[in-house]
Design brief:
porphobilinogen synthase activity, globular, ALAD, ALAD_AS, binds ligand PBG, Delta-aminolevulinic acid dehydratase, alpha/beta, single chain, porphyrin biosynthesis
C-alpha cells in the first residue's frame, strides 16, 4: 500500500509546519482588558484570576505603557468605583474612576494603541445590573439607553477611541451613535458586544470588579442555546452603526463567531473571558495541562474561527513572547 497523497509531508519539520500555518498570533490583534480600582495605591491581586490585578491609577499607566511597548493592538479599561448607587452615577461623572483613568491613559499611550472602555453600568450600580431598574426591579431597557448615551459622551470626552457596548440593551448602538454624533464625537467608534451570552464563564470577572449582582442577567444576555439569535443580534448592531462586532465568550461560541465573521462587513472580534482564563491557569497550576501550549492553542482556535482580534488576559504575555 503506497498512499498517493501524504498530508504528513507538510508536518515533517518545525520549519515546514511554520511555513504552512494558516493562523498566526500577531501582537496587533491582541487586546488586553485592564481593571482600575478607585482608591488603590498599589495593585491588588484577583484570586480567581491568578496573574491579573486590579490596578491603581499609577500601575494602570505603567501597564498600558508595557502594552504599547509590546505592540499590542489595544487595551480595554474597566473601572471599579468606591461608591455605587442605583443609576451608576460614577459612570457619567467626568471624575469617575473609569473616566479619570481613560484620560490618564489616553494622554500617555493613545497614539501607540487603541484605548477602549467598557460601556456598561454593572460596575457602577449598587444592584450590579447592567442598567437601571424600574419600579418592579426589572432592568428598564429604554431608561438605560439614556444612561448609556451620557456614559458614551463622558467616555469619548475622556479620550476613549472605541466604546465597548457590553450591556445587551435593545437599541443601544443606535442610541449611543446618536448621542456621540450630537456631541460632535463623530470619530469615536463603537465596538458592539453583539452576541453576548449569559455565561458561567464570567464568574471570575465578578470578583475582578467586586460585582454587587444577585441573580443573573438572563433577561438581557443571550441564552447559550441559541445560534441564530447571535446572528440576529450581530445584524441589528451592524445596521445600527456598530464599527466592530464582538462575540463573547469565545471558546464555547466558536460556531457563532464563525457565522458572524462569515457574514459581517465590519471587523469581528472575540472576548476570551475571565473563566476561560481561569480554567487554563487552574489546570496548569495542578500540572494537568501544558500552560503555554494551552494558551496558544486556545487563542489560535479563536483566530482560526474568524476573529480579527481577541480580547485576552494573556495579551501581554503572548505579545512579549514575540511569537508571530
Ligand atoms: C459587563 C461585562 C462583563 C464582562 C465584560 N463586560 C460581565 C458580565 O456581563 O457579567 C465579563 C468579562 C470576563 O468575564 O472576562 N460590564
Amino acid at each position: 500500500m503506497n498512499p498517493l497523497i501524504r498530508p504528513r509531508r507538510l508536518r515533517t519539520t518545525p520549519a515546514m509546519r511554520r511555513l504552512v500555518a494558516e493562523t498566526r498570533i500577531h501582537p496587533a490583534q491582541l487586546i488586553l482588558p485592564l481593571f482600575v480600582r478607585e482608591g488603590l495605591t498599589a495593585p491588588a491581586p484577583i484570586e480567581a484570576m491568578p496573574g491579573v490585578v486590579q490596578h491603581s491609577l499609577d500601575s494602570l499607566k505603567a501597564a498600558t505603557a508595557d502594552a504599547a511597548a509590546a505592540g499590542i493592538g489595544g487595551v480595554m479599561l474597566f473601572g471599579i468605583p468606591s461608591t455605587r448607587d442605583a443609576i451608576g452615577s460614577a459612570a457619567t461623572d467626568a471624575d469617575g474612576i473609569l473616566n479619570r483613568a481613560t484620560r490618564a491613559v489616553a494622554a500617555e499611550v493613545g497614539d501607540a494603541l487603541v484605548v477602549q472602555t467598557d460601556l456598561c453600568l454593572d460596575e457602577f450600580t449598587d444592584h450590579g445590573h447592567c442598567g437601571v431598574l424600574d419600579a418592579r426591579g426589572l432592568v428598564d431597557n429604554d431608561a438605560t439607553l439614556e444612561r448609556y448615551r451620557d456614559m458614551a459622551v463622558a467616555q469619548a470626552e475622556a479620550g476613549s477611541a472605541l466604546l465597548g457596548l457590553s450591556g445587551m440593551m435593545d437599541g443601544q448602538v443606535a442610541a449611543v451613535r446618536d448621542a456621540l454624533d450630537a456631541a460632535g464625537r463623530t470619530d469615536t467608534a463603537i465596538l458592539a458586544y453583539a452576541a453576548k451570552y449569559a455565561s458561567a464563564f464570567y464568574g471570575p470577572f465578578r470578583e475582578a470588579v467586586d460585582s454587587q449582582l444577585t441573580g443573573d442577567r438572563r433577561t438581557y444576555q443571550q441564552d447559550p442555546a441559541n445560534r441564530i439569535e447571535g446572528l440576529r443580534e450581530a445584524g441589528l448592531d451592524e445596521a445600527e452603526g456598530a464599527d466592530v462586532l464582538m462575540v463573547k465568550p469565545a471558546m464555547s461560541y466558536l460556531d457563532v463567531l464563525a457565522d458572524v465573521a462569515a457574514t459581517a462587513q465590519v471587523p469581528v472580534w472575540a472576548y476570551q473571558v475571565s473563566g476561560e482564563y481561569a480554567m487554563i491557569e487552574a489546570a496548569a497550576r495542578n500540572g494537568w495541562i501544558d500552560r503555554d501550549r494551552a494558551i496558544r492553542e486556545s487563542v489560535t482556535g479563536i483566530l482560526r474561527a474568524g476573529a480579527g482580534a481577541v480580547l485576552t488576559y494573556w495579551a501581554l504575555e503572548l505579545a512579549a513572547e514575540g511569537r508571530v
